[in-house]
Structure formats: C-alpha cells, structure tokens
C-alpha cells in the first residue's frame, strides 16, 4: 500500500504545498516500532485468511507496541470474522481465539472469584485472567487466542488452557483443520507449533475438566509483577490428577497421575522439570522451589476436599 | 487505509496509516484533543475512551481495529449543551486538580454508571483501577462518581449549561 501524502494544503498565493509543523505525535509515529506495517486487512470470511510473507494474524493487538516487531509488514485482523466468543457444547466449552479476556473472565461467577479449597474449574477463568497484569480495560480488547499464540512463559491463557487439557483447533493454510493439545502447542518462549499461514481458531475445553476440582497458586516478586510461577491442580471425577506448571518454565508442563499422588512422587515429578525460566522476574532455583511448594500445597488441598 | 467509525454519534471516515493508534487518530486526525495521551504503554489510562460502551485504552487499540465500531470520547459526554452527571459530579466534588486523567476517569465512570447506577466505593475504585491520577486525587474522584450516581439527572436538574 502506498504511503499517503502527509497532511498539508495548497497555499493560495504561491501555489506551493505547505505542511503543518511536525508535532510530538508525528515524531513518535516516525520512530515507533511498527513503521514497517503497511497494511491491515480485515477479512470477514475464511478465504481472506491467506497470509503474504510478513503478514501475521491480529487478535486484540494490545501487545503489539510493547516491543519491536522485526519483519512484520502486515496484519490480518481476525475480529471481523464474527466468531462466537464462547459456545457451550455437549463436549464442553469452545472458546474462540478472538474471545476477549473480559468475556472469558465473566465465565466465573462473582461468588467464585475468591480462592477456596477444591473449587470448581470455573473459578480458574477469573484467576487466570487476573494473572494477566492489566486493568479490565485491557481485558476488553486482549484476546485469549492472542495470549496463547504469543507463547510468553507467563501467558495466563496458556496456563488456563493447559491445566484444563484444552485442545487448540487450528485452521491450516490449505483450508483444512487440525487439533493439538495447548500444552503441546506452546513449545518454548515465543515458540509454538503454529506455522506461517495457520490460524488459531479456538480452544476446546472438555466437560470432564470443567467438572473437576481445582486449585490455583501464583507468585510474583512484586504485587503487580509478572508471574514467577503458576501452578494449577486438577482432580477429575475419575480421580486422575493433573498438576500443571507454567509461568516459571519455558513451556507448559503437565504432571499426570492416576490418582492424587504421594508427596515423594509429586516432588520427583516437579524435580523432573528441566527448563526453568530465568529473567528479571525470577531465578530458576526460586521458580523451582516455589513450584515445588505450591504443588505440595495443592496436593494436600485437593486431597482434603 | 480508509477507516470509518461512529464518534460521539457522528459517522466519520478518514484516511490513516494502518499503524496509527486510536488515540492518535482521535487527537490528530479528528482533532478531538479531549482524549489525552500519556504513557503510551497502556499503564496510565488517561487515553481511555468507550468502544461500543466499554472502556478501552486507546493507546493499545489500533485505529483500524475500531473500524465499524462506536467510539465515545469526553467531547461526547455533554449532550444538548448540558453536562453529563459525571461531569457535573467532578465539578461539585472537585474531582480534578491538574485535569490530565480526568477525561479517562469520567468515561470510565460513565461506563460504570451505565451498568451499575448505584456503585459502592469499592466498585468505583475497581472501575478506575489501571487509571492513574498523578495528583493522587482518588478520594475526590470517588466522591465525584458517587455524586453522579446520586444525581442521575445531573446538570439537567440544575439547568446549568456547558460554556462551550
């Protein structure tokens, strides 16, 4: 797309084009990180989801300006595709990638927002949304799919989806569809199993997970800091127990047991995690120690309820 | 690219670069400078506008993503020359000092009162969370919103007109 002429006007006397003074805003636009983005397309049907080199899907876009986006020349806005944000099906819950964090958080009844032992899984929607450190004005725009596809270590939607055994529905570039567990879709820091041209369409949460008892733990170095670790425990009606560790690791880890494990077995499983993340928000040793503590707390909590 | 939206009840269409943020579109292209531009990192909340009735931080929304949506800025609060009760409340209870956060605070308050006409102090404080008053005048902001809740007819009841 051709860059439009800067704002200006024809001078009536001289006939020459004149321009208004450069404002602070214009200076900022000239120096900010999205100067290579030349086009935003807004398709309203799947056949518009054909991605040119340099084009990427756009969810809420709230993260876009936070850091440089090298190689990004175009965005394809998914929000006009008209996907129902949340659908209840016989199999469980289908959450569109374009579902906003606010819409997801609203799934948790107000009375279930405060943590309590052995809470139902619906409390996790609020708890994980709250782990996205932003006011609800950001929740009104940021999307569930965007947070998962970003694959940040502390991506709370990844924590939520992985802990509930959510399956990602992916539209492939050839017009097909494939499914993969979210716990396997996020493969590392800013790394997913999505290939160019693929679009995360939705997350499917099975009914068995929604009916489970859960527990939630999170810690950060400061009250409003990025998560050092997020540990979520889940016990299905069958007794199967899943402890999911995210936030402190480069990718989600699901520790599975046929029943609520003993202390030693759980500790050994946490010790088996070998990709503790290191940055300003926490050292690997601290993240491992806190995850171990939280996993044991959740084990006791879920055993008692 | 061409961007169309409804702003304060008026349907507008303008040319803008795809990467332009909504806050810049509103201020620089539409000339509605009541929406303030603060941190540019979605922390301060002075750029809050209502998109389809919901408060959003316009420094975190691309103008292109507001295409086809309904936007309300602080200029759209007063109607028919009469202050919105929220604006009147900020006058009555001294809800502003420097005024930099005020447009965003008032729009958030309007969105809150539209959904919850009788909020308590905690609900008001939750509503304005993520919006920073650099004068730290939160107590008077909360009182201003409470005034608006208690006077839903606002300025209309007093017959006071906007000096604009």
Automatic annotation (TrEMBL), chain B:
Keyword Amino-acid biosynthesis (UniProt): no
Residue span, 2Fe-2S ferredoxin-type domain: 1-77
Signal peptide bounds: none
UniProt keyword terms in alphabetical order: 2Fe-2S, Iron, Iron-sulfur, Metal-binding, Oxidoreductase
GO molecular function: 2 iron, 2 sulfur cluster binding; metal ion binding; oxidoreductase activity
PROSITE patterns for the chain: 2FE2S_FER_2
Domain of life assignment: Bacteria
Pfam family, one: Fer2_2
Xref: InterPro entries: 2Fe-2S-bd, 2Fe-2S-bd_dom_sf, 2Fe-2S_ferredoxin-like_sf, 2Fe-2S_ferredoxin-type, Beta-grasp_dom_sf, Diverse_Oxidoreductases
Pathways involved: Alkaloid degradation; nicotine degradation
Keyword Chloroplast assigned: no
Protein name per UniProt: (2Fe-2S)-binding protein
Organism (species): Lacisediminihabitans profunda
């Amino acid at each position: 797309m051709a860059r439009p002429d800067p704002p200006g006007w024809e001078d009536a006397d001289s006939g020459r084009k004149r321009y208004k003074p450069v404002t602070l805003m214009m200076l900022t636009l000239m120096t900010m990180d999205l100067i290579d983005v030349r086009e935003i397309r807004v398709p309203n049907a799947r056949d518009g989801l054909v991605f040119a080199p340099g084009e990427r899907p756009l969810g809420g876009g709230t993260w876009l300006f936070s850091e440089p986006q090298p190689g990004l020349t175009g965005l394809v806005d998914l929000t006009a595709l008209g996907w129902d944000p949340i659908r209840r099906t016989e199999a469980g819950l289908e959450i569109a990638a374009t579902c906003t964090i606010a819409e997801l958080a609203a799934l948790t009844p107000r009375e279930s927002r405060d943590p309590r032992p052995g809470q139902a899984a619906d409390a996790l929607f609020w708890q994980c949304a709250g782990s996205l450190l932003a006011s609800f004005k950001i929740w009104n725009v940021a999307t569930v799919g965007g947070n998962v596809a970003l694959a940040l270590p502390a991506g709370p939607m990844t924590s939520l989806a992985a802990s509930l055994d959510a399956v990602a529905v992916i539209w492939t570039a050839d017009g097909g569809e494939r499914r993969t567990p979210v716990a396997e879709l996020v493969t590392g820091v800013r790394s997913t199993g999505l290939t160019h041209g693929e679009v995360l369409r939705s997350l499917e949460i099975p009914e068995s997970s929604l009916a489970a008892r859960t527990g939630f733990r999170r810690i950060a170095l400061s009250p409003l800091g990025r998560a050092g670790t997020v540990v979520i425990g889940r016990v299905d009606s069958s007794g199967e127990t899943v402890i999911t560790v995210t936030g402190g690791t480069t990718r989600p880890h699901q520790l599975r047991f046929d029943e609520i494990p003993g202390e030693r077995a759980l500790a050994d499983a946490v010790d088996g995690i070998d990709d503790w993340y290191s940055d300003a928000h926490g050292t690997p040793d601290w993240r491992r120690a806190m995850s171990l503590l939280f996993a044991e707390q959740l084990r006791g909590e879920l055993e008692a309820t | 690219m061409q961007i169309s939206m409804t702003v304060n009840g008026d349907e507008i269409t303008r040319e803008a670069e795809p990467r332009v943020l909504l806050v810049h579109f509103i201020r620089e292209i539409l000339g509605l400078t009541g929406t303030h531009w603060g941190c540019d990192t979605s922390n301060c909340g002075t750029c809050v506008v209502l998109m389809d009735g919901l408060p959003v931080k316009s420094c975190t929304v691309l103008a292109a993503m507001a295409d086809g949506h309904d936007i309300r800025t602080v200029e759209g609060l007063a109607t028919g020359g009469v202050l919105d009760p929220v604006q009147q409340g900020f006058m009555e209870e001294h809800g502003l000092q420097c005024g930099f956060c005020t447009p965003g605070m008032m729009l958030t308050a309007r969105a809150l009162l539209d959904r919850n006409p009788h909020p308590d102090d905690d609900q008001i404080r939750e509503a304005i969370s993520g919006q920073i008053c650099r004068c730290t005048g939160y107590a008077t902001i909360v009182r201003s919103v409470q005034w608006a809740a208690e006077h839903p007819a606002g300025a209309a009841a007093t017959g006071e007109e906007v000096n604009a």
